[in-house]
Amino acid sequence: MNLQAVNPVARVIALLVFTTPLLVSIDLVSALVSLACTIIGAPILGVSYRVLFRRGLPIVLIAPVSGISMALYGRPEGREYFSVAFAHVTDNSLGLAAAIMVRVLAVGLPVIVLLGTIDPTELGDGLSQILKFPPRFVIGTVAGARLVSLFQRDWEAMRRARRVRGLDGHNRVRRALTMTFGLLVLALRRGTKLATAMEARGFGKDVSRTWARESRWGRAETLLVVACAVAGAMSIIIAVWCGSFRFLGA
Known about the structure:
The chain is mainly α. It folds into 2 domains: 3-117 and 219-242, no CATH class; 135-200, no CATH class. The chain is 68% helix and 4% strand. The longest helix has 29 residues, at 172-200. It is globular. The chain starts with 7 loop residues before the first helix and ends in an 8-residue tail after the last helix. The model has no long low-confidence stretch (mean pLDDT 79).
C-alpha cells in the first residue's frame, strides 16, 4: 500500500485507533505485540527499515530515560533489590520500566510510519471536507504543520552560523541546549509574525470557503483504519489471554 495515495485524515484516524488501546494497559505483552505489528507493517506501507531506524533513533534514545525513572520511582511491589531515599527498585517497578520503554517505541514508531510523509495541504482538505472542522482550525493546523517542517532547516542554519562565528565548541550537551533554546525563540517569533499576517489577510474571518482540491475517502482508507483497529485490539486481547493485562498499571 502506498501511503502517499491514502487520505491524511485516514492516516491520523488509523494512528489513533492503533495507539489508543496502549493507554488502557501498562504491560509488556501488549506493547510488544503493537511494536511487532509496526515493524512488520512498515515495509508493507512503503517505509523501509532504514528510514524507520533513522527517523526513530531519537525515540530509541529517549525510551530508556522513561524506563529508568519508572524503575526508580514506580510503585514498589514484590522483591526489593535496593532503595535510596524515595527510589525503590522492585520486581514491579522493573516490570513497569520494561513495559514503559517498549510502549514508548510502540507509540512513537507508528507516528513515523503513518505521519512521516503527510502533506499539510492534503490534511487540511481532509479535515475540512471529510471531518467538517471549522476553517479557522483547519488553516491553523495547516500553518502549524508547515512550520514544523522548517525546524530541521532552521537547526542546520543555526549550526552553520555558530560554526562561522567560532561558537561551535566541543561541549555537545551545552551546544545542543543553546541551539534548542534558540530554536524555541525563533519558532515563537515566526509563529507571532505568521499569526499577524494571517489575521491581516482575513484568515480569521468566519466565512464560507471554497477548496481547490476534492478530498476523497475510498477503499484504501477504510482498509487502513480497519487494519490498525484490529491490530490495536489484538494487542489487548493477547495481553488478556496471557494474563499480563494491567489496567493503567494496577
